[in-house]
Design a protein that fits this description.
The protein is mainly α. 72% of the residues lie in helices and 0% in strands.
């Protein structure tokens, strides 16, 4: 029996919500724990869990990108038009990333260095990844066979993901593009203005590889073959993920080294494969949980957070790392930090619910005051999976633009009122 479109999209929202929760705990413990608590095994595992949110966000961006581009193709849009729409969407997300950096700089006025404006953060990388995926898909559609275009797109996306991963150790060391100005080089290797690549930034190499891995999986899931055996495909994805983990660990244990400088935790293709394996295992488990488990029994906090992930990402940063931090930074133990984490989780969940309710009221008001049109339906949950995914991305972007402009306006007013 085929699954409903709601079930097919629920696992995407649930996984994105999981990424939000992992992000909350990583940021909260990193910002608030004192020096003694940072020596514990608890903190080590917390930060290890912090290696997953960014890959999850990028991986899911790739899957959603495949859904959107396939819908545009089914509507009869030419490859040039599809590329224009998707690359423009990526540019909007990149713009959001730059706007977020501006907001954080304004909020931290007086002590934040101006170079923070040019930091390569996760939103910047998601935007650049979408632009690159749009360009690659355009090239493949222009040159590839129309009869098997989804298969070719999937294989190409997987190949690009591996190529990015394999080039990362070189571009961080012996092949570093030092001749570029640092704001541009930072998008390649995360060097910022510090002279050496920084592990806490999100440059194209290796991070964009996760988006292309998601794009490859997205086109696989859209294939007719996968549609006829959906549950089996997800089971194979989970098994394949476990296999990737063991393969990467075996290769890492080999005495041979492909690179003169080897950094397992930051640039290694083996660590990339391990994380892709984890993503595939999480994807399979999430699909099963949402289809046969309790993932959609009544209200799901993770699905709710996943539907407004960009908004809660945007807002929680100030209350964890910023001037409005709800807990003293680097000053408390695990228990107090955990209570703060619970507060952040509940507050962001409430914010997400309020945003959803507000949007529903706007949609209801629009339907009551004007005839229904295709454009008015674009922001609603539709019965068609790909249309729903496109509307989902549109809603996130509108939310982020609205929240960002309001936040900046509020901070400017606060700064102005406190100035002598």
């Amino acid at each position: 029996m085929p699954t409903s479109p709601a079930h097919r999209l629920a696992y995407i929202d649930w996984m994105r919500g999981l990424a939000c929760v992992l992000m909350f705990q990583t940021h909260c413990y990193d910002s608030w724990l004192n020096a003694e608590a940072r020596k514990t095994t608890f903190f080590m595992w917390s930060q290890l869990g912090g290696t997953l949110p960014a890959p999850l966000f990028l991986f899911l961006a790739g899957i959603s990108f495949a859904l959107v581009t396939e819908k545009l193709r089914q509507k009869g849009l030419a490859p040039n038009r599809i590329a224009q729409k998707t690359i423009r969407r990526g540019a909007e997300i990149l713009g959001l990333g730059l706007l977020f950096r501006l907001q954080e700089y304004v909020i931290a006025w007086g002590w934040a260095p101006w170079s923070d404006l040019l930091r390569v953060d996760i939103l910047n990388t998601i935007g650049v990844s979408m632009m690159l995926m749009g360009g690659v898909c355009w090239i493949v559609r222009m040159l590839g066979p129309a009869a098997r275009i989804r298969q070719v797109l999937g294989v190409t996306a997987g190949g690009v993901a591996m190529l990015i991963s394999l080039l990362t150790p070189l571009l961080w060391t012996t092949w570093r593009p030092r001749w570029l100005p640092w704001p541009i080089e930072s998008y390649i290797d995360g060097v910022h203005n510090l002279g050496q690549p920084q592990a806490w930034l999100f440059p194209i190499f290796p991070w964009t590889a996760f988006a292309f891995a998601g794009l490859a999986i997205g086109f696989l899931l859209l294939s007719d073959w996968a549609g006829r055996r959906e549950a089996a495909v997800f089971a194979m994805a989970g098994a394949g993920g476990v296999g990737l983990i063991y393969l990467a660990r075996w290769m890492d244990a080999r005495p041979e080294r492909l690179y003169a400088i080897y950094d397992f935790w930051h640039t290694s293709p083996n660590f990339f494969l391990i994380r892709v394996g984890l993503l595939l295992a999480i994807l399979a488990a999430t699909y099963a949980w949402c289809r046969w488990g309790a993932g959609q029994w009544g209200f799901s906090p993770l699905i709710q957070l996943g539907q407004t992930s960009l908004l809660v990402y945007w807002v929680h940063i100030e209350f964890v790392y910023g001037r409005l931090s709800i807990v003293p930074k680097h000053a408390v133990g695990i228990r107090t930090a955990s209570l703060g984490l619970l507060t952040i989780f509940l507050a962001m969940l409430l914010l997400s619910i309020l945003r959803t309710k507000w949007k529903e009221r706007r949609l209801d008001g629009g339907r009551a005051s004007s005839p229904v049109s295709p454009e008015s339906l674009a922001g609603q949950r539709c019965s068609n999976t790909s249309v729903d995914a496109r509307a989902y991305i549109n809603n996130i972007c509108r939310t982020a633009f609205s929240a960002s402009f309001k936040a900046i306006a509020q901070r400017w007013r606060a700064c102005a009122s406190s100035s002598p």
